[in-house]
Amino acid sequence: DLLTRLAQTLGGAGGEDAAARLRARYRVVLVDEFQDTDPVQWRIMETAFGTGEVTLVLIGDPKQAIYAFRGADVYAYIEAARTAGAQHTLRTNWRSDQPLLDAYDALFGTAKLGHEGIVYREVSAAPGNRRARLSDAPDPAALRVRVVDRDAPQIGTTRQGYARTGPAREHVARDVAADVVSLLRSGARIEGGGRVRPGHIAVLVKTNRNAARIRDALEEVAVPAVINGAGSVFGTDAAREWLRLLEAIERPAYPPRARSAALTAFLGWTTEAVAAADDDAWERVHRRLHHWARVLRAKGVASLAEAITLEEGLPGRVLALADGERRLTDLRHVAELLHAAAASEQMGATALTAWLRERVLEAARENGDEERSRRLESDAEAVQVLTVHRSKGLEFPVVYYPDLWEPSPTPRRDRPAPVVFHDAEGRRTIDVGLEGPQWGGHVERATDEQRGEDLRLAYVALTRARHQAVLWWAGSFDSRNSALTRLLFSRDDAGNVAASARALPSDAEATARFRALEGLAPGCVSVSGAQVHGLDRWEGTAAAPAELSASSFERSLDWWWRRTSYSDITAGTYEARVASEPEEPVVEDEDRLFDPAIGAPPAAGDLHDVPALLDTMPVGAEVGTLVHRVFEATDFAAADLTSELARHVAAAQARRRVELGDEESVVAGLRAAIETPLGPAVGGIRLRDVTRADRLDELDFELPLVGGDTPAGPALTMTALAGVLARHAGPGDPLAGYAERLTDPGLRTGVRGYLTGSIDLALRIDGGRFAVVDYKTNWLAPPGEPLSAWHHRPAALTAEMWHSHYGLQAILYVVALHRYLRWRLPDYSADRHIAGVLYLFVRGMTGPETPVVDGIPSGVFSWQPTPALVEALSDVLDRGAPA
């Protein structure tokens, strides 16, 4: 984990040096929402910036600490507050009207929200908010309380006289809908915002189930409402329909599954159509499922979704439904998640069906996965229904609170589960024993802390409102322990709020207590009964028809602009793909074209007598990809390098099996490559000498070409690159003559936009110089000839660099490294920091005894461009033409 590793680094042997480097970079460190941090995060901030050399500013409100379930720990905030050199409190509320703040002052008083150090404080409204900004509402009070009559026939009571929870929830949902309609019909206006519309209203709930209940009640009275991110999309009908479709695609000839799929939105059959369909109709369905199975198998989920959309007219059919926009959004969202899962895990129909089935089952348990949370399909003019946790940081003109009368779940002794609590010293503790003499006390502590967070949850919820807040109270058995009930009936004069109430007040007692708030904040609080006498539909105001016109495409296209890469630029020169570009699924660096003038061996020679160690390793893109993966994962400095390589070869093979021949020989050959000296450009070091701290593997880059989105000149041409290379490369430069090869008609003649790529390895040497390293597994010997050091001598490698246009790749990659270092190093210069470019043809690298020709080991192509050349190449990529 990044946090724990950073904390260990700062607290370890070299921790002071690491902290000093952080302090050197920043003069002021500001941490927002500090109440949502945890002890590890606070320890990091305190160790790195709490010494006084840097100004550390912590901004937070402990009254809004509501994320304990995510690991946030308000005790970290309290500890930090105790050690702060200075404290400042904001006394002005810039959100809410003063009447609403007065009502909250009456409700909360001096309550302590779960801890001695978390006290409600009175604040004043900003100058422009000193009076009510909501006018002409049916009930003008800033805080409205609606009490549910438990004796009402539609509610009913239990044997003990408590309101039945289920009917009370349904009743409150209907009352919310009725009250919203009343407000919308009233002509109420918001200062500066016009007449109250659905988009001005939010309903905050504690659970996703309540969100759905409220949404359904609002839709019943024709009030548009959307659930803002509440719930997993895998818990929707759309996910279940995708599951039924995938099950049918998995077995397209199985009649029960075909019938199930026919009833989904994808085929759109009704139950009557299913009952009346003859054999010919079902045969067409089976053919369609077979066709979709082929699409899924060959092209993936994205293509399947697109095929269904086009072939079945899916949007038109779904959008014709009352909730069509929401359903179509969910269908597309599930399709995206399926596509991502299938692509990353290489899943076929059966595995994908099982994956989705598991996600649907998981969705029964509420979770906060942002990727899976339902997307808001339209929020312009709809009531927002969302959970309190999601509302944090948001604000709304009018807010309804239908379930503040219900407490959050707490640990139960009869259903043992690990509990989290703080001990007497304030340390966060987890009890996983589930039994023993201390178990009961730990459950009680955890319950008390949850009830304290409930108070803060109520505070966060209520402070989302700008002008008016409407809340409900119902006398169910559990409501005695709700934050609302305890604030009113279980708070002592010192502001302490008991975690549990002894008894539930009657409806009359609750009403009287709420009415007492009216006296504390005259004109700011109103109390009424929650009675629903019938639901009227809201008609709304018809929007004027928009004037439609046909769209015309008038701008001219920049045909030179593109997101390009080395592979894209060289695609026309040969069929095989070269190097490890982000868009390539495999690394194809096996150039099978052979030039006899380059590779023909002499009659005799010492180099010819040195065999390659990887001569039995097969060729091909998949082998190249595997070698890249193994090198990326391997710690070159590992004590047992052979075991390290063997482990990563096995892991790569487990991911995707590749024919390697004798794997022990491959491991031995790769070890030899790692132990081969790399030549004078990098001081003769080996990969073996490079630690993890001095390497960046697969360094992705995306560079603007000729201005990027805003063209700054003519398109970049290969001729321009050739001119720079010819001008700045001296006679001893191995790429000096490569400029002529850049006129190859197969190369893309001009590009503008962005250049993307991935450098196999960025290497740091001598603590301050850097080199580009690229791995190649090319077979350089003619067919039928044993591979030897002769085929990897410098002249042969230079010829291969020219022939396969690796020279262009080297040019682009050294510019990428130059730009990266220029961005990251404050005192950067190409002269001091660029060591050069190394292309490692690993088949020719045979270990410490690798033959050396003209100072360069066999298998190593070394290029050291001059600083002027590097700068000029960077400039031409930026401007499109030489300066």
From TrEMBL:
Lineage, broadest ranks: Bacteria, Bacillati, Actinomycetota, Thermoleophilia, Solirubrobacterales
Key words of the record: ATP-binding, DNA damage, DNA repair, DNA-binding, Exonuclease, Helicase, Hydrolase, Isomerase, Nuclease, Nucleotide-binding
EC number, as in UniProt: 5.6.2.4
Gene Ontology MF annotations: 3'-5' DNA helicase activity; ATP binding; DNA binding; exonuclease activity
Keyword DNA damage: yes
Protein name: DNA 3'-5' helicase
Record's catalysed reaction(s): ATP + H2O = ADP + phosphate + H(+); Couples ATP hydrolysis with the unwinding of duplex DNA by translocating in the 3'-5' direction
Domain spans labelled UvrD-like helicase ATP-binding: 1-97
Alphabetical list of Pfam families matching this protein: PDDEXK_1 (PF12705), UvrD-helicase (PF00580), UvrD_C (PF13361)
Domain UvrD-like helicase C-terminal span(s) in chain numbering: 122-393
InterPro entries: DNA_helicase_UvrD-like_C, DNA_helicase_UvrD/REP, P-loop_NTPase, PDDEXK-like_dom_sf, PDDEXK_AddAB-type, Restrct_endonuc-II-like, UvrD-like_ATP-bd
Record PANTHER family: RECBCD ENZYME SUBUNIT RECB, UVRD / RECB / PCRA DNA HELICASE FAMILY MEMBER
Alphabetical GO biological process terms: recombinational repair
Entry GO CC: cytosol; exodeoxyribonuclease V complex
Keyword ATP-binding carried by entry: yes
